[in-house]
Structure formats: structure tokens, C-alpha cells
Amino acid sequence: MTVKADRTYTISQLAREFEVTPRALRFYEDKGLLMPRREGMNRVYSHRDRGKLQLILRGKRVGLSLIEIKEILDLYSIDQRAQAQTALKRYKARVVALEAQREDVEAAIEMLHGYIGQLEGFLAKPAAPNAMANARAFEQEAKKRLEDAH
């Protein structure tokens, strides 16, 4: 019976399992994040490589840079506690940044709702008799300027 830690994976198997392209796996290898062993021309990924890929994708998903992810991965072989502390620090920093972004997004949405309400209120009022003629004339002039520019 094969021990799970001894299990190996091909590039296609990992790509399929994690829904990434083989090119993405090669990119992570080029960046020093994954280091599969070679059997001839084939890459052979270990169970540990699979775990690293999980961490890479989790880090990317929450917005960590590849440099930050590499720092966390590199600490594993030195000191797992230091790795966990570094990951915790990075994750907490991302939470702060994402919460600030959420506040900005919520404020922008609220502003947009206000603008939408103002515009809908304006458009709900009857148009001045010559408003449509003015709008058509403006559109024709804009179209003519665009044609002249080409």
C-alpha cells in the first residue's frame, strides 16, 4: 500500500485537481516556488509539492504577492513556527487592507446610488419641448466630428 506522503503527481494531475494550467505550474517552478524532481523530461511532484501548491493558490487568492508567498514557503524548511508566524502576520495585514478596500467600495456604491437617484429623478420629469431636438443635434455634431477625425 502506498503511503500518502510517498504519492507523486504529474503536472497534468495537479493542474486538473487545482484547476490551473500546466503553464501556471511551470511559472511557479520558474519563480522557485515549486521544485518538482525530474524523471527524464517529466516533472514529478511530491505530496509536499502538492501542499506547497495549495499554499501558493491560497496566498494568491487572498492577494499575497509571489515574493510574500515564497518567503512563507522558504521558512518551512528552516522553522515551521517562524513560517506560521510569518503567514499569520501576512494574513492579518491582508485582512486590514481588504477591510479598507471594502469600506472604499461600500462608500463608492452609496455615492453611486445617490447619483442614480438624482439622475432618475431628473429623467422622470418631462423634457423641455426643444430638449430632444437639441440632443439629436448634439449627437449629429459629435458623429460629424468623429468622422472628420478619421
From TrEMBL:
<keyword id="KW-0238">DNA-binding</keyword>
<dbReference type="GO" id="GO:0003700">
    <property type="term" value="F:DNA-binding transcription factor activity"/>
</dbReference>
<keyword id="KW-0175">Coiled coil</keyword>
<dbReference type="InterPro" id="IPR009061">
    <property type="entry name" value="DNA-bd_dom_put_sf"/>
</dbReference>
<dbReference type="InterPro" id="IPR047057">
    <property type="entry name" value="MerR_fam"/>
</dbReference>
<dbReference type="Pfam" id="PF13411">
    <property type="entry name" value="MerR_1"/>
</dbReference>
<protein>
    <submittedName>
        <fullName>Copper export regulator</fullName>
    </submittedName>
</protein>
<dbReference type="GO" id="GO:0003677">
    <property type="term" value="F:DNA binding"/>
</dbReference>
<dbReference type="InterPro" id="IPR000551">
    <property type="entry name" value="MerR-type_HTH_dom"/>
</dbReference>
<feature type="coiled-coil region">
    <location>
        <begin position="81"/>
        <end position="108"/>
    </location>
</feature>
<feature type="domain" description="HTH merR-type">
    <location>
        <begin position="8"/>
        <end position="75"/>
    </location>
</feature>
